[in-house]
Design brief:
Order of helices and strands: HH
Mean pLDDT: 94
Largest sheet: none
Low-confidence stretches: none
Radius of gyration: 24 Å
Number of strands: 0
Distance between the termini: 65 Å
Amino acid sequence: MNKTMSFLKEVYEELTKVTWLGKKDVMRSTVAVSFVVILVAIYVSLVDMGLTAGLKAILGGR
């Protein structure tokens, strides 16, 4: 139990040293990540549709 309390105390001390991002920076990062995720999703969807169409043409599927 003593080791657990010591560990938690050390964790708290380390967290007080952390420099947290501001609200504005978090919002910018969130928007940037969301934009990249949307672009990658569109790209993967287009590649999937292209490969599906190509395989259907080659294999004569429905």
